[in-house]
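Give me the fold.
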Amino acid sequence: MTPAPWAPLSGATHAVALEVLRRGPLSRSELARRLDLSAGSLTRLAKPLLDSGLLVESGSTGHASRAGRPTRPLDVVADAHHFIGAKVTHEDAHAVLTTLRAEVVASARADLPGRDPASVVAVLRGLAAELAPRSQHITAAGVSLGGSVAGHATVTAAPFLEWGDDVPLGALLSDALGVPTAVDNDLLALTRAEHWFGAARGRDRFAVLTVGAGIGYGLVTHDRVVDSPDAGVGLLGHFPLDPLGPLCPRGHRGCATAMLSTASLCAAASVGLRRDVGYDECLDLAASGDPVAGPLVLASGRALGRLVAAVANLTLTTEIVLTGEGSRLAEVALDALREGLAYDRDPRASAVSLDVRSVDFGLWARGAAVTAIQAYVLGRIPGR
């Protein structure tokens, strides 16, 4: 059976379908309340969606209507459509197969034999072939990476892959995979997933911070992801945190990159200990009271707290998700983080809720799938 299409939907009918997708299952009365519609208008708008099979009546809520019959909430058929999402790092690719509601059905990963576009496309084609048999129909694909992306189609810069020129990755992958493919900055894709289907679903304002090879930042305000051509530039990495801190590769003293990136912390610990030190080893040494690693990690923890405070102060959000390869810093240097947060946060301000998550590239791949889901249901698939 061919899945019911979203492409022709528009106006109020489209709004009904989107609300059910993002918040459902929903009773008719709740859906009408959310969209400020009369019962009659909602019935009129929902009928073609039910007739086409795009929406269905799910199990009874157990609450009786005025006529004494149990209400039957409206829902989407989540497994009628499947999407492939992939997150590309500088050394490997992680892919997932999801439903229309971003529920992960299967996952896979593979090393990159090279960082050139042809090698990346070949690896993603192999991962898609591995995942595709788990679904009768792949609607679209999404791919995310660290860098700048124009029009969900062209990678204008990807420093971790050493791409400096425009790469039409969307078109290359659409041809290789045989389905429309949307490309996104990885932090924006992760933010989209949290916004529509994650822990932040239903929140009007929240932020996502990532600490690792670089410093990433995503923001939702007024129930919309803040998107910009500058999203992949890594602007928050230049934010000053410690006037006496070390230098970053751009010559900024004590900026977020210098204080928080895994490379910066490892470099400082390696100089002090006069040997190569990895990130987790540095944190372990700090936790055991090492006189070199300890102060370095405490300084980074305070800097992280100040960065969290800056995001909360400037955006007026109190809900912040922290993840990335370097997120363990928040655990090892928790007291220092709290000290830095309190130092730059007015005591009269609302408490900041910091949700710390260990890195899971499967979640980042799921974010890429959500980019594809949004592009499909909003009619924004590149080249369609």
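The chain has three domains: 11-76, 81-192+362-377, 206-316+325-357.
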